[in-house]
Design brief:
It contains 11 helices and 7 strands. By secondary structure, the chain is of the alpha+beta class.
């Protein structure tokens, strides 16, 4: 039980730090050319009932972003705000990311007994995002009021469907998110233009996905995944750990058939 309480408190702490980072990025004009996507976007913008570790973005503007420069600015802001943080920044052609590690934060907050335990947040931008995403703006107040550029629901769902069909390993959180999408937005279909572009980009050899067949492909993945692994992966990120029992294999298959 002690570990689950540490997990829960670390999740909350990380979430505050993510909101702070997003606020700094927003004030630096980041959302003029970048869309906030992925699971943390689902949580912040749409109330996904689980925590997420990464901040994921997609290039959405014509302007070339100087990622390294932006990250260094972010680190300066953190230092001014009194955080002890270090970043490992990687810039290559397609993916640019930074691992920002905060030192002493968990210890000072009384969450971890270890001074050395770090809290990390990964910031990642896909500079080669698939064409066809539909952008929208969303004003949200999560610790800080921010006007986000993001994808519409159907494009966000296409990103999740692509992850499910393309990932080489089981990431339990994907399946929880799938169940949540199907239950929350009944009748939602992925943005097929974007999804098929994404699949082709990652070497998909199968037929194109369309309204009449996409559920079949997703069902296959749901059928053959290891559901014990799904549960143990997702549990520590949930607002209510018992939700892991709701979004089980049977229920997700049922939702896909509806």
């Amino acid at each position: 039980a002690a570990q689950s309480s540490i997990d829960q408190k670390s999740n909350v702490m990380r979430e505050y730090v993510q909101a702070y980072l997003l606020n700094v990025l927003y004030e630096a004009g980041f959302f003029r050319n970048s869309a906030f996507v992925g699971e943390t976007a689902l949580r912040f913008l749409h109330g996904l009932p689980r925590f997420s570790e990464d901040l994921d973005f997609s290039m959405a503007g014509k302007e070339k972003m100087k990622f390294g420069e932006l990250m260094r600015k972010l680190m300066r802001e953190l230092k001014l705000a009194g955080y002890t943080a270090a970043a490992v920044i990687k810039e290559d052609k397609t993916v640019q990311n930074a691992f920002v590690k905060f030192e002493g934060l968990l210890f000072e907050a009384g969450i971890s007994p270890l001074k050395s335990q770090k809290l990390s947040v990964k910031i990642e931008i896909d500079a080669n995002s698939p064409h066809g995403a539909v952008l929208e703006e969303k004003l949200v107040n999560k610790f800080f009021p921010i006007n986000f550029l993001t994808y519409d629901k159907s494009s966000l769902f296409a990103g999740k469907a692509h992850a499910l069909l393309n990932r080489k390993y089981t990431k339990g959180r994907d399946f929880f998110d799938l169940g949540w999408y199907l239950l929350t937005w009944k009748g939602l279909e992925p943005n097929f233009v974007m999804l098929n572009n994404a699949l082709r980009q990652t070497g998909w050899k199968g037929q194109a996905l369309a309204p009449e067949n996409w559920r079949v492909f997703i069902e296959e993945v749901v059928e053959k995944t290891d559901w014990k692994a799904v549960k143990s992966d997702v549990e520590r990120f949930l607002d209510r750990p018992q939700d892991a029992n709701i979004f089980n294999k049977e229920n997700i298959l049922k939702l896909l058939k509806e």
